[in-house]
Structures are given as structure tokens and as C-alpha cells.
Amino acid sequence: MDLDKARIYLDNAATTPLDSRVLESMQPLLSEVFGNPSSIHAEGRKAKTILEQSRKKIAQLLNVNASEIIFTSGGTEADNTAIRMSVASLGVQHIITSPIEHHAVLHTVEDLENYGKVKVHYLTVNRHGEIRLDELEQKLQNLSHCLVILMHGNNEIGTLYNLESIGQLCKQYNALFHSDTVQTMGHYPINLGALPIDFATGSAHKFNGPKGVGFLYVRKSNKIAPFITGGGQERGHRAGTENIAGIAGMAKALEISLNELEHDRKHIENLKSIFKKSLQKQFPEIEFIGSDKGLYTVLNTSFPPWLPADILLFQLDLNGIAVSAGSACASGASKGSHVLEAIGADPHRNYIRFSFGKFNKEEEIKTAVERVSDILNEKTTKK
């Protein structure tokens, strides 16, 4: 690896760097607030106060009741809780979802179906990963006791779904609606209180907070049993001693992200535009996957077949650029991206996901384009 090259991090969809202001807010909690929030002594009460203040802050930011926020270890646990407990507690017999959901959803519904708990129905998606609302409505008309699961923003190709339209259809046919909002939480103004949605998930490390902490929103009308048992924490919703510093850091990160959202969004959109247009100008054979109206943080880039993705990833890393081929959660898997397969992407081409964050700088993006260009030009002359 060339140590003289400054590293450029363009894998923000996998995880984001911790905001220094979040770290600063967490440091005294890590060293001074060591009490168990379930204990009744002064140290425990101090931890409990911080826990509930954090819950209240997140609830206010999302326009919901504090009692509707359950803290988890992250988005995967939150998705599992919503799905499995909807089946166990709310009588769900059918699940309608898409083939491009995160594996935290797809593997969970597959598991439930394999054990005979539910029947899973998959919507068709077009080449941009978009669903048809008329197909969803047709399924809702013919099925009962349904849970609809559709993510807000796709982590690989950036496709955005309209939560309001989907939620209204679900409401019309008395179906429950769960959305994995991990990629959009902190990046879009999500008013959960005004949306016809029953469950939503968030993970702190996707909006410049700490890893290993997230939350599940559960509309108060839905009474579900705990997914993790063993104690009465989280008002009986989730057993296990709460991660006070992580939860407080998540609340701080979400507050910062939403307060600075418009500024950060314009900045990131500009970076993505520079990167995309510069590559397109130099290499017309490069294509971009997904809708132009998708996530402003994600750019899935399709390279010609003569440059294998694993070699390009290796070369980019050697040249100081951190990116992903598809989803980081599937790295090391023998199969290719289930998302690209579902949308009918050309299997002969190679796909790299560049994802941008608020800490990226314009100069970095220009340097990244230069390094990518150098790699492509070198490989072009050798092919």
C-alpha cells in the first residue's frame, strides 16, 4: 500500500466517521456515568436520567412519543424485532416485501417462512429498483393479516421509496407497515409521527454516531412482546443493560445531523455531482445504477467487464480510496449482490459503490477522480 497517498474515505453507506462533537459528549459518560440505569441508587438514577433524556430527544426529533422508541444494538436487531415480533404478537401471516431489501430483512423473513410461520410475497422491481404501487395494492387486496416491509433508501443503489404512499395503502387494507430507514435516518427529515407507519429503524453509525447502538420505533397501538428476554429493561420491551454512552451519543448525532441537514445535503450533493460528471466525461463507457432521484449519498458505478471488481477494489485501496463492491454486510460472501441481480444488472460488468459523507472535501473528490482515472487508464493500456 502506498503510504504516501492520503486516505480518502468514500464508504459512508457502510459506516460514517464519528463526529468529534458526539465523541466529546460521550467521553464524560464513559468515565463518570458508570451506574446501571436499572439500579435504584444515586449512580443508577443518574444513568437512568441520561437514558430517558436521550429517548425524549430522539422522540422529539422524529415527532413521536418517547414510549415509542426502543433502544437496540443497531439496525439489524431493530429489523429482527419488528418482523419477528409482528408475527409472534400481532398475528401476521403474510409478509410483502421486495427482493432488494437489506439482508437483515430478507434473511429474517426467509427464516420465518422456512419454519412455517408466514408466507412471503415479493414485489417485482424495475431496473432502478422501484416497485409498482398497483402491484402492492393487488397483493393487499388478496391477502389478510399482512406486514409490508419496504426500506426507505436502498444501501446499494440508492433507490428511495415513498413512505407516505406505501403507508396509506397499508392503512387502507389494514396491513402493518415496517420500513428499514437505516440509510435515510439523519439524512432526510423523517416525521414518523405524521407518517402512516408502524415500525421504523435507525442505526447511529450511519449518521456519524457510535457503532453498536440503534433504535426501533414502534407505534404505540402495536403491543409486541420483547425479542430479547431476560430482564425488564426498556420498559419490558428489550432485555439487557442499556449502553448509556452509546445511546446519548446517538441522540447527539441525530440532533446534529437533523439540525445541519440542509447544509450537509447541499455539500454532499455537490461532491457526488463533481465525482459523477468528472468520471463520465473521461470514461463514457462508465454507467451509473439507480435513479437520479435516489439517495444523495450513494453512487453505484458500473465499470466495463475488462476490469474485475475485486481487482479494482484492490487497486483503489492501494491508492488510498476506501469503497465497497455492493453492500459491506455481504463482503466475503461467495454470491454476488442480490440487489444487482434483482434489478437485472448486466452480470458481465463490474460494480463499485462510492458513498459520500459530510466530512468529505471537494479537494478529496477531485483527487479521488484523478486516482480512479490513473487506474483505469493504466488498465486500459494493458487490456
Secondary structure class reads alpha/beta
Average pLDDT score: 94
Measured by DSSP, the beta-strand proportion falls in: 5-15%
Pattern of helices and strands? EHHEHEHEHEHEEEHHEEHEHEH
- Summarize the main sheet: 7 strands, mixed
Q: Tally of extended strands? A: 12
Task: Tell me the Rg in angstroms.
Answer: 22 Å
Name of the CATH superfamily of the largest domain: Type I PLP-dependent aspartate aminotransferase-like (Major domain)
- Supply the CATH architecture of the largest domain: 3-Layer(aba) Sandwich
**CATH topology (level 3) name of the largest domain:** Aspartate Aminotransferase, domain 2
Helix content: 40-55%
Major β-sheet strand ordering: 2-8-7-6-5-3-4
Would you state the CATH class of the largest domain? Alpha Beta
Distance between the termini: 23 Å
Oligomer: single chain
Taken from the alpha-carbon principal axes, the silhouette is globular
Structural summary, described in words:
By secondary structure, the protein is α/β, with parallel strands linked by helices. The chain has helices at 20-32, 42-62, 75-90, 103-114, 133-142, 163-172, 244-259, 261-282, 309-318, 338-342, 362-382; strands spanning 8-9, 69-72, 94-97, 119-122, 146-149, 176-179, 199-203, 214-218, 287-289, 298-303, 321-322, 350-355. Helix 5 packs parallel to helix 6. The model has no long low-confidence stretch (mean pLDDT 94). The relative contact order is 0.17. Strand 5 (146-149), helix 6 (163-172) and strand 6 form a beta-alpha-beta unit. The strands form three sheets. A seven-stranded mixed sheet has the order 2-8-7-6-5-3-4, with helices on both faces. It has a three-stranded antiparallel sheet with strand order 9-10-12. The radius of gyration is 22 Å and the shape is globular. It has two domains: 8-18 and 261-382, Alpha-Beta Complex (Aspartate Aminotransferase, domain 1); 20-259, Type I PLP-dependent aspartate aminotransferase-like (Major domain) (Aspartate Aminotransferase, domain 2, 3-Layer(aba) Sandwich), CATH 3.40.640.
